[in-house]
Amino acid sequence: xxxxxxxxxxPAELIPLMDDFARLLxxxxxxxxxxxxxxxxxxxxxxxSMKSDIDFIAVLNQPVLSEDDIASIHAVHEELRMxxxxxxxxxxxxxxxxxxxxTAAADIESFPKLFHGGTRALQSGTIDATSAWIxxxxxxxxxxPESSALEIxxxxxxxxxxxxxNLNVYWANKAERxxxxxxxxxxxxxxxxxxxxxxxxxxxxxxxxxDAGYLVLEKQPNERRQRVIREAIRIREGTGGSIYGTELERxxxxxxxxxxxxxxxxxxxxx
Length: 271
Description:
Layout (H helix, E strand, L loop, with lengths): L14 H14 L4 E6 L1 H5 L9 E7 L6 H17 L6 E7 H4 L12 E3 L2 E2 L9 H10 L1 E4 L12 H19 L9 H20 L5 H10 L4 H15 L9 H23 L2
Parallel strand pairs: 2-3
Antiparallel strand pairs: 1-2, 1-6, 3-4, 4-5
Helix pairs in contact: 1-3, 6-7, 6-10, 7-8, 7-9, 7-10, 8-9
């Protein structure tokens, strides 16, 4: 029986979308469907309407999909896109029980991935370590067994390795481009994401970016870095005007913050 969505912690505005999503999967690919789950900000209690992504993971019973199965799944999302405006914020992928337990051979598989409401190139159903961790410990079941009943194999070393990549590949590259931080969306994304990485490494737990921002701010003795974090929180919450005099000054402070966090994490965790 489908979960009563009003009791699962799913925001009320998303219940019609998620109800139809689960129903259509059961109707169109009943031989595949095992469960539908939410992770990300919804699972962590930090969903913000019109800002947060709707991060989902659909779990299937088998690790190899036929072309007909894939076409049926694409049709599900096309119907959802036409009916539900919030589908534009949906982001997620399909995986299998075998992928979650790491017993699948990813090189022979194709699964649909959804990015902001549109299906993209097919790929392996293996999910990244952070998403697997959130699903295992905080996942919200839209339909199917609770996420705690899934045999999800994810070790802390995998999370640590992903943080290393995020810092020393993704953010190290972005740190060389100060012009990115002239954009408020990039400021919020960079500062609060790095705050979450800091908290994750220190506490072995994953919070929303906003919660992590507040916690790192509380322990931050440097006034210049406090200012950067407060500005990112202000942007995320949509309150007031900038606390900076110029956009250039702000961009350079954000760039400095990114570089400093990368260096400090490398020193502390021996990346």
